[in-house]
Amino acid sequence: MQTKIVALDVYGTILNSEDIENALPPIKGFGKFVVSVKQNNLILVTSSDADLNNLRLDLEATLSKIGLGLGIFDGFYKLDTCPKDFRGIIDEYGIKPEQLFVVGDNYFKDIVGAEEIGCSVLRVPEYGRIDYGFDFATVEIP
Ligand SMILES: [Mg+2]
């Protein structure tokens, strides 16, 4: 495994983007994914472009439905350029781009910038649009 840090978009990736009331749990399989992140001693951060206060509230409400809390994350980054610029995270942790695994639902926002600088990337189907039956537990960390 080359990955040291996993950077997750939040809305549409972990949280259902249309779930304003936080009535739904995180994306299917997310709990299992977190277990594998922790078992491999990886750093887990968010890389959403959203307001961090709202993001923390939404995540807390949603993660609690599967017995998790905000403590699963080692950092919360607000990346609000389009495409997102991941160099700040890479520099802060002193890792190589290929050691950052970026996961998101939006190709142009989440993926393009990461791909350009050599990160590992995975685009997932947007949670909340159509039920693609996608299971986050099947995500393999490179
Ligand atoms: Mg998104």
- Total strands: the figure is 5
CATH architecture: 3-Layer(aba) Sandwich
N-to-C terminal Cα separation, in Å?
Answer: 6 Å
Mean pLDDT: 96
Task: Report on the architecture of this protein.
By secondary structure, the chain is α/β, with parallel strands linked by helices. The protein has one domain: HAD superfamily/HAD-like (Rossmann fold). It is 27% helix and 16% strand. It is built from 4 helices and 5 strands. The protein has a 5-stranded parallel sheet with strand order 3-2-1-4-5, covered by helices on one side. It is globular. Bound molecules: magnesium ion. Magnesium ion (MG) binds next to loops.
Can you summarize this structure?
The protein has 142 residues and is an alpha/beta fold. The chain has four helices and five strands. The protein has one domain: HAD superfamily/HAD-like (Rossmann fold, 3-Layer(aba) Sandwich).
Architecture blueprint of SSEs:
Layout: E1 5-8, H1 30-39, E2 43-48, H2 52-63, E3 75-78, H3 87-93, E4 100-104, H4 107-116, E5 120-123
Parallel strand pairs: 1-2, 1-4, 2-3, 4-5
The chain binds magnesium ion.
Magnesium ion (MG) binds near residues 9, 105 and 106.
